[in-house]
Amino acid sequence: MSGIALTAAPPAASDSPGLLRRLAGNRSAALGGVLLALVLGFAVVGPLLWPGDPWEMVAAPMLWPGEDMANPLGTDVMGRDLATGLVSGARVSLLIGLVATLIAATIGTLFGALGGFYGGRTDAVLMRVTELFQTVPTFVLAVVLVAVFRPSVTTAVLAIGIVSWPATARLVRAQFLVLRDREFVLAAETLGMSTPRLILTQILPNALPPVIAMSTLTIAHAIQTEAALSFLGLGDPNVMSWGTIIGGGREQLTEAWYVCGLPGIAIIVTVLAFNLLGEGLNDALNPHLQRR
Amino acid sequence: MAGAAVKRRGLRSFLLRRLWQVVPVLFGIAALNFLILQVAPGDVVDVLAGEAGAATPEYMAQLRAAFGLDQPVPVQFAHYIWNLVTLDLGFSFRQNMPVLELIMSRLPATLLLMLAALAIAVTLGSLIGVVAATRVRSWVDTLLSGFVLLTYAVPTFWLGLMAIVLFSAVLGWLPSGGMYTVGAGLTGFALVGDVLAHLLLPALTLSTFYLAVYARLVRSSMLELYGADFIRTARAKGAGEWRITLVHAFRNALLPMVTMLAYQSASMLSGAVLVETVFSWPGLGRLAFEAIRTRDLNLLLGILFFSSVVVVLVNLLVDLVYVLIDPRVDPTARRA
Amino acid sequence: MPLLEIRGLQTWFETRAGTVKAVNGVDLSIERGETVALVGESGSGKSVTAYSVLRLIEAAGGRIAGGEVLFDGTDMLRLDLASLRAVRGNRIAMIFQEPLSALNPVQSIGTQIVEALRLHRDIGLRAARERAVELLELVRMPSPRERLEEYPHRLSGGMRQRAMIAIALACEPDLLIADEPTTALDVTTQAQILDLLRELQGRLGMAMLLITHDLGVVAETADRVAVLYAGRVVEQGPVETLFDAPAHPYTRGLLDAVRIEELPPGSRLPEIPGMVPSLLALPPGCAFAPRCPRATPACDAGPPAMRAGGEGRLHACFNPWLSTVEGRVPA
Amino acid sequence: MTAPLLEMRRVVKHFPANGGMVRAVDDVSLQVAPGETLGLVGESGCGKSTLARLVMRLFPPSDGSILFDGTDLTTADRAAVAEYRSGLQMVFQDPFASLNPRETIGRILEQPLVVHRRGGRAERRDRVNALLERVGLRPEIAARYPHELSGGQRQRVGIARALILHPRMIVCDEAVSALDVSVRAQVLNLLLELRAELGLAALFISHDLAVVRHMSDRVAVMYLGEVVEQADRDSLWDRPLHPYTRALIAATPSTSPAARRRERLMLQGDLPSPIDPPRGCRFHPRCPLAQPRCREEAPALRRVGATEVACHLA
């Protein structure tokens, strides 16, 4: 569902010192950073404010937020504290989002780099595999993987990682294809530079910036996918995530819509934070846009 | 030689070749399914028949023989492929029906939902995109950017839930789920109207994300095209802004949108699973949800295979549309 | 009255780094039926001047900050959009450097010629298509009738530029602006296109403003030439006399640098030291002074005004090479 | 004649492309003696850039062999290739694309020395500074990034990079085409000086015949992947034998008043596609002098006076 189109931009002429300054000056990046800090703070400080087991039934069911200050965000249909649940969800979401993206970015970069650099048959094979993963509806595949291998945090991370890499692979490949024929790369080649050195020192540094930007968006998407899996009942049965709370609150949707509403807002804020950050990064790393 | 004639003649061979290219893709999907079965815990038959003893022991034994589990893996794979080729997706014991039959009975509902969502997304998306592009940095444009950002962040299933709360529970305007009013026995136009009323919320929910994607895409391609040399040519010819926007820019902005459509047919099917679950829309997605709940893995794998096939066919259709609208695509050339 | 008269044109671009004064006071006039070349290196403002005439520069992010562009007596800069459109493509037409990107990729050549016709003439579709065939014949497009249905990507570079010219000539303009029309083409194709432009211009009696960086193209095509440096005309006059005895040191330097074939092979080439000044911070005096071999302190004080040098020659220099008798001295 | 430094023997390069084979370079044999400059001229798509890349070993030839200093590169071992790499360097066309945007000028220039393990850190820095000065740049520029430099300065850096390993020959592929006239003269002068000073051999490739003539001892003209004429500079310029060479000279616009009134040999049509080039003489569809024989029979290169020419009528 990652519709935010990241085209293979011409490699940036940016050097890192200016990057932070540019990011801070970029409105979306700054807003994204603030939101992300909020979510991170919630995940880190939350357990101190609302300690305890999110699964424990601590009060009367379906307490509305603000009704009882012992449970500031109310309770769900089973009388479990929502604030504690939301904190747990924040930790799960961030963890799964980050690790799954790491997996996706690694596979994607490897596939894209090899295909783009070597071209020919290697590329053809790798691209067929990539296309295959783009043809299969990714969420359905993730559902099947988690269902077959039993729901747990590990299977969720692996499943999301496995379905999320094709976009990165395509981006990296496109970058490599362009850079491969750039004159400075040819110049390095005519110097007698070895292939690994050529890839690592000449091509990769120029290919990575948009990949980093895209990875931020992949995190956002991974968090949404995790929530959707948990919503369908494919979450880790021992871990309370935002999707789990929404899935549980469905039955009493009309009576206590806040049970579904609050974790949804948490998801929106987190995903928004990463999207904004990714967009800001993309602008800051892309000299093509800077000129506007 | 006129290009149009060449194109028409090329189209047939293009279609044939594209159809031929579908074969390895299908084979790959089948291989992927088989791979999942192979690395799954327990033996294939355990997975396929579902747990908790839903299948009779006789059928389990029969399945084991059919899969030749004593045979080497390649032979098992050959069996598996043959079953798929003969459209034998197995039997669902939970639903007591062949998987293929189940899927076919649910397919029309999903297609209806997807088409409706697509139609909404494409029309509204292009409209908003064009308007935003012609008024860059105006309030319309800012509003669109905000809407797009928010839409990207909102989980589809959550949006559906909230829509139910607002439009069904609070306002009472629209039904909260299902495809038609059960037991009303409506026919003719009344039935169509009833289905449309049921369709509206799920279709809007599913379309929201894509609407934002297309609006953004159309906006950015229009902006890029406004700087294109041939737009400058049109200006130099003395063409008016409306003519430039619609005849020259928008016509070209359609191309990336069609490409995007192909990319997103798979994503849309994924979205349909969630939306159907929320709205109890009796399609493939709802079927998948039921399969998850009952751990009917065979049915789930069948849905995965079948939905992939649907995506392949949709992509084929999009390719064909692309050839028709972009004269630069040479249908006789091989894929780049 | 000249057909086109540009007076004190200033076109600026606002960037984050400051105001780029791409065109900074250009004066130029073109008579009916005459070919004037505007020549300069990249960043000299020659294309920006051309786009400013048709006010295409606004869509490119520029702003006309001052001056007048009088076409047949009316100031183009003061026209409302409807009247401006009535001039564009009708009385003033334009062709561009990259014919492939300048043609709409999803419209056939015929459609694009017909559009140019029907925007300004009350003519039926069938008649317009017949006229389009005539136009393609006029630009010597091989098998013109078949080409109507062809899309730009299927034509060769030379044929694309011919199609572009056919579009420009559709309404028989009084003035054709050609922006680097042959830069993207190979030399042998360039020769064909220049030949065609020369012939059509004579036959149709239209004036032409030729924008180019290639002094050779100027010599073979234009009647008069204006040399641009850092957004200003530094010298103008009839091509033959100006190229024979350039008055401005920049013109002379430019000519010396390109007349490679007249030097003994392998010998040192005359060069202009340094580089073009930034358009963000132009020197207060003559913009060429820092690179000029004849510069004096006076050159840094204020910009030199345009002065007449006889035989229709004009130059903006405090210390010009004036003796026409002496001719060009090979460095 | 001394033993050639670079020798191409019947080199062929074909690329698969949409619906056919691009015959980018077809049976080309060329030689460059030590200290000599061979000019290579032709229009876009004639195969001159492919030839440069073949010489630089960026891809192998489909057929034929390329010898540098007597060693066949297609069969050479790693050590010989490394030796070859340092002996033959290239100056690229686009000064904006030929420098890595993420490396400083100093790093870019030092890299070849690091790759070939030459000198210690201090020695390398000295060499970089000395060379920067030699190409007319201040040593402070070593700390800058390419985007901070002008086009002319970048091309000087490109030349410095090509020279840092003390090559015996350089390949210049359209090395001044992207530069403005006033800067072009500066860069050409620098190349002339350095070549004389270092006794370099060169392959100088350009579409501009006047520039090629100025820079070269001998000139070869390519058309659609083939060498159609090859001669010493003056014979080719003063007495071109191939109709294509004549048309090329005639089509080059000149600022001299005399040239304005000269008789032109105008070619018809455009360059055919290098996919499935014309049968017989590849130039015959555009040749004003073509005979029936030219359609049937491909002319071989043969010697006429001081010139080698591939034309039935020469």
Automatic annotation (TrEMBL), chain A:
It is a multi-pass membrane protein. Keywords: Cell membrane, Membrane, Peptide transport, Protein transport, Transmembrane, Transmembrane helix, Transport. InterPro entries: BP-dependent_transpt_permease (IPR050366), MetI-like (IPR000515), MetI-like_sf (IPR035906), OppC_N (IPR025966). Belongs to the binding-protein-dependent transport system permease family. The chain crosses the membrane at residues 29-50, 94-120, 132-149, 155-172, 256-277. It comes from Roseococcus pinisoli. The keyword Cell membrane applies. Residues 90-278 form the ABC transmembrane type-1 domain. It is found in: Cell membrane. Gene3D superfamilies: MetI-like. The keyword rRNA processing does not apply. This is ABC transporter permease. It comes from the Bacteria.
TrEMBL record, chain C:
It is a peripheral membrane protein. Pfam families: ABC_tran, oligo_HPY. Gene3D superfamilies: P-loop containing nucleotide triphosphate hydrolases (3.40.50.300). The keyword ATP-binding applies. GO terms for molecular function: ATP binding. The keyword Ribosomal protein does not apply. Residues 6-255 form the ABC transporter domain. SMART domains: AAA. SUPFAM superfamilies: P-loop containing nucleoside triphosphate hydrolases. This is ABC transporter ATP-binding protein. It comes from Roseococcus pinisoli.
Automatic annotation (TrEMBL), chain D:
It is a peripheral membrane protein. Keywords: ATP-binding, Cell inner membrane, Cell membrane, Hydrolase, Membrane, Nucleotide-binding, Repeat, Translocase, Transport. It is an enzyme of class 7 (translocase). It catalyses: glutathione(out) + ATP + H2O = glutathione(in) + ADP + phosphate + H(+). InterPro entries: AAA+_ATPase, ABC_transp_ATP-bind, ABC_transporter-like_ATP-bd, ABC_transporter-like_CS, Oligopep_ABC_C, P-loop_NTPase. It is found in: Cell inner membrane. This is Glutathione import ATP-binding protein GsiA. It comes from Roseococcus pinisoli.
